[in-house]
Amino acid sequence: MSGRLVHIGSAVVDYVYRIDALPAPGMEKTASSFAQVAGGGFNMMVAAARTGTKVVFGGQLGSGPNGDFLRAAFAAAGIETLTPPAPAMDSGNCVAMISSDAERTFVSWPGAESVLSLDMMAPVSVAPGDWVFASGYTLSYAGSRDALTDWIEALPGNIPFVFDPTPIISDIPRSILSRVLARTTWLSCNATEAAEIAGRGDVEDLAVRLLAEHCPQAAGVVIRSAAKGCHVTLADGTAQTVAGFKVDPVDTNGAGDTHIGAFVSALARGAPPFEAARYANAAAAISVTRHGGSSAPTDAEIQTFLSQAAATGAPGQNQKAHQTA
User: Using CA atoms, how far apart are residues 314 and 242, in angstroms rounded to an integer?
Assistant: First the structure.
């Protein structure tokens, strides 16, 4: 890949508690472990960086201890921050509770990442070969959504823009969401998020409606289905459900971010979309066998995993494409 992934989403500090099950209302649980880690958009950036893409961050970090913690994590991962720290705010945080079934529950508190202006984004520029990514979190904040949407709409037409609406999609004003979707080159979401945009239906119908009615410039739509894999529909009507891989999960936190980061990285290197989707499925499968949100594998680890899967005839192999009506 000759260009960069320019991430203009948000990053926060995750406080991760591992518990056997969520406490009942009014009750208390003692965690079996605790960790403070970089989270939010950091997980997607790490996934892209570990699979061979140069990543830069164009969002906003704070000037307090959370911001300092995130800058150190970015530096350790080789991710350059393009914007100066917010002078009057620290970065936000998220409490993540990981239960024994590998599911996670979040409570977040926004910080500097929730306030963005075009002046703040002035140092963020793009060049031919770059890819740009944004998530719904930054668009959900009243203090950042307008500037970010204006910036996205002003992107040169030859710059691919990837969008993940995230679980807080219902907090994004419809007018903002529509403008961002209209500029989207690749949409990656889960089935619940797809239905929030396009109405009820199976993933095949949802993908078709997303392209026809909401993402007129998109090259394709990816609807992720966790362990089941993902469904990909291209603008030309070609579609494929790419099966996931059977693994024993220990932590699903960051799996979606890993999938998106690996998918974009593969596309940017020139992989065909369905091949990129299988690569992303493998990356996400490996990540859920490890603790931590930024548990994305390297390209070498993914290639080894795929080679072993091919040798054993694992799911995700030999899925045939078809034309949607």
Answer: 12
d(CA 121, CA 86): 12
pLDDT digits (tens, 9 = 90+) for 19-76: 999 999 999 999 999 999 999 899 999 999 999 999 999 999 999 999 999 999 999 9
Q: Say how far apart CA 221 and CA 127 lie, in whole Å.
A: 24
Say how far apart CA 180 and CA 137 lie, in whole Å: 13
Torsion of Cα atoms, 277 then 280 then 281 then 282, to 10°: 130
- Sorted by where each begins, the domain ranges of the chain are 4-20+34-323
Rounded distance, CA 211 to CA 3, Å? 26
CATH homologous superfamily of 4-20+34-323? Ribokinase (3.40.1190.20)
Provide the residue type at 228 as one letter. Answer: K
What average pLDDT does this structure show over 82-91?
95
* Helical packing angle, 145-153 and 174-183, nearest 10°: 30
Residue at 109: amino acid letter: W
How many helices and strands in the chain, by DSSP H and E?
10, 14
**Strand-by-strand arrangement of the 33-40 sheet:** 33-40, 11-18, 93-98, 104-109
| pTM tops 0.85, yes or no | yes
Give residue 121's identity as a one-letter amino acid code: M
Please tell me the distance from the alpha carbon of residue 146 to that of residue 164, in angstroms, as a whole number.
17
Contacts of 78 by beta carbon, 8 Å cutoff, 6+ apart: 49, 55
Query: 3-state class of 127 per DSSP?
Result: coil
Residue with tokens 């899967």: 309
Q: Is the dihedral of CA 158, 82, 190, 294 positive or negative?
A: positive
Structural tokens at position 309: 């899967």
∠ CA 169-221-274, rounded to 5°: 140
B/e letters for 112-125, b = 16+ CB within 10 Å, e = fewer, are bbbbbeeebbeebe
Residue 14 sits at φ, ψ, to 5 deg, of -95, 135
